[in-house]
Amino acid sequence: MPLFLLGYLVFLFMPVLVPSGSDWGSNLQWRLWPTLASIAAFLPMYFLAYRGSAMTRVLCTLGIAALGCGLMAYNAFSNTYIIYAAAFVALLPGALWVRLAVLAALLGAYHGLSMWLGFPVFVPVLTAIISVAVFTGNYFQSETVRKRAELKLSHEEVRRLAALAERERIGRDLHDLLGHTLSLVALKSDLAGRLIDRDPQAARNEINEVSRVARDALAQVRRAVTGIRAAGLAAELASARLLLESDGVTLRYDAQEVALPADLETVLALSLREAVTNIQRHARATLAEVALSSTPGHVVLRIRDNGVGSAAVPGNGLGGMRERVESRGGRLRIDSTLRQGTCVEIMLPLPSGADVVTAPEKAPVGAT
Asked: Which keywords belong to this entry (predicted)?
């Protein structure tokens, strides 16, 4: 974009188009060389204003403004530099009123020099109109970039806090689950050790009790881990909402409650992550829909968007998704039509005994 914006320097050569009999058209050759010299001085300041520090940007902006004022006696279209300076004023550090004051001083100085040099009134007026428009556009663009950066940081903080809360929850659950059980195992093991010489039968009973308690604890841990992993799909949905809403994409979610095994939950969560990432990067969509449904034998996850669509070219992400799905005996289908959006469908076989609870209402998860 900075290179593209240099195209406006062509206005410095507009005197070539002015009739030679006019005041502006006289002594054209004498005015050309100062214009070329001004461009050589302008280019370093222009690029430094984009890449330098805040103080460098201030100095370059003042230098460009001074260049525009200094060239006025040789080129009536030196207001091009004034407009460039106004664009950089919008990006200066400080409050908005400070930038507006700098812009007003810049335009006031140019207006005074224009009147002193006898320029027509429309020249400073037109310069002021264009400068204010450019200043306004750059200011709001910079504010948009800043707010996007703040939103991204807030999303990362939400994810970090969610991960921290999840770790704390897992720690509490495991402590509550295993604390009492391990204490009981330790007590009964000590009791069995004391009884083994005096009452072998009672010692055997205690050892059997220890074995039973340990098996129950193992079953509880497995259920807890399954529950923790089952939260993966919900976590990915929350992450998908944060990712898409930052780009103004509405996410709608409609699902049945399914007690999924941990391995199938992981496959669906990772597939959802990859599909949502593709929507955010490539689809240019305004709406995305996620639907989870099941039958006694299969679970189906569909991710659909209303984006540009295209002929789907498998990449590393889609290839990895297909491998994960097919390794569980499932099927991945991608329907993508130009300007009609994309639909990704993952079908996985459910093990016998998986519970399906119908949840008829739709739970939209969307952005404003």
From this structure: Kinase, Membrane, Transferase, Transmembrane, Transmembrane helix, Two-component regulatory system
